[in-house]
Amino acid sequence: MDKHFIYIVKCKDGSLYTGYAKDIEKRIAKHNNGQGAKYTKIRRPVQLVYQEMFDTKSEALKREYEIKTFSRQKKLKLINEG
């Protein structure tokens, strides 16, 4: 069964980016090679600081959306507690 992940990376400028991936290692490598999201392309390198795993893509995407609505403070709290 496939696993689905949401993740948060910390960018070089200190900002946080939340995303979805089936293979986090490959996705982080893409971000750092400039092939990831437009947002991270100019903020490389990125560092993985948080991840969650889900059984379905639907669950993961719902959680990704939820986290993207969080304030920076709430994201930092999630990262620190995770």
Task: Describe the protein's architecture and organization.
Helix content is 43%, strand content 26%. It contains 4 helices and 3 strands; from the N terminus they run E-E-H-H-E-H-H. Strands 2-1-3 form a 3-stranded antiparallel sheet, with helices on both faces. Strand 1 and strand 2 form a beta hairpin. It starts with a strand and ends with a helix.
What is the CA-CA span between the terminal residues?
Answer: 24 Å
Give the helix tally: 4
Coarse structural class: alpha+beta
Q: How are strands sequenced across the largest beta sheet?
A: 2-1-3
The count of DSSP E runs of length 2 or more, i.e. the number of strands, is 3
Amount of beta strand: 25-35%
Mean pLDDT score: 96
Helix content: 40-55%
Largest sheet: 3 strands, antiparallel
Query: What is the CA-based Rg, rounded?
Result: 12 Å
Order of helices and strands: EEHHEHH
| Poorly predicted residue ranges | none
Shape: globular
Give the structure's gist in a few sentences:
This protein has about 80 residues and is α+β, with helices and mostly antiparallel strands.
Topology:
Layout (H helix, E strand, L loop, with lengths): L3 E7 L5 E6 L2 H9 L5 H4 L5 E8 L2 H12 L3 H10 L1
Antiparallel strand pairs: 1-2, 1-3
Which terms summarize this structure?
single chain, 82 residues, alpha+beta, three-stranded antiparallel β-sheet, 4 helices, 43% helix
